[in-house]
Design goal:
177 residues, alpha/beta, Rossmann fold, five-stranded mixed β-barrel, 5 strands
Length: 177
């Protein structure tokens, strides 16, 4: 719908489980690429489309995010997001597989939205709030209440980053001279 309404840039956010050891709860990760393991694609069907996903996450938008993070004094990691269908959390074996595949974080959203937006020509950026260590990495049982608590604790940093990121992206909408 955003693309159909003329949206040219979309900034997406999500909560994700951290796979990379450096991603502790409360970390922010800019998505550089994704792995679609949902078993779905929004472009499949009778009017299927073939689109290039090489730079699904726009390089200029990613640069704007790093600029915004530096201005805000907020650390911003960059990594690969694995999208799974959910709604259950992953198993430790699935997390080991994802790590082997090169995933740094895992979640249940964003990937299908990015594919649909890119098909419409919308430039995309996305950031994950790492709300928990992925299954089997912390020795604790995953609890959705803890995920929500970390999201609330990270809210100010997240809002600051996204607010500055929006401002940084405004320059990308200006016509070239």
């Amino acid at each position: 719908m955003l693309g159909a309404l003329g949206c040219r840039i979309a900034l997406l956010t999500n909560a994700a489980g951290g796979i990379r050891a450096a991603f502790v709860p409360g970390s922010l990760m800019l998505i550089a690429d994704h792995i679609n393991l949902t078993g779905r694609n929004p472009l499949a069907g009778p009017s299927h489309a073939f689109i290039d996903m090489t730079t699904a996450y726009d390089l200029d938008i990613r640069t704007a995010a790093h600029t915004a993070a530096a201005e805000a004094g907020e650390p911003l990691h960059e990594g690969v997001y694995a999208g799974l269908l959910g709604p259950s959390y992953e198993t430790p074996a699935e997390i080991r597989m994802l790590r082997t595949l090169g995933a740094d974080a895992v979640g249940m959203s964003t990937v299908l939205e990015v594919i649909a937006l890119r098909q419409l020509g919308v430039r995309v950026g996305a950031v994950s709030c790492i709300t928990n260590a992925a299954a089997g990495l912390s020795g604790k049982t995953l609890d959705h209440r803890e995920v929500e608590d970390i999201a609330r604790q990270t809210r100010k940093a997240f809002e600051t980053l996204v607010s500055r990121w929006i401002i940084a992206c405004e320059e990308l909408l200006q016509p070239e001279e």
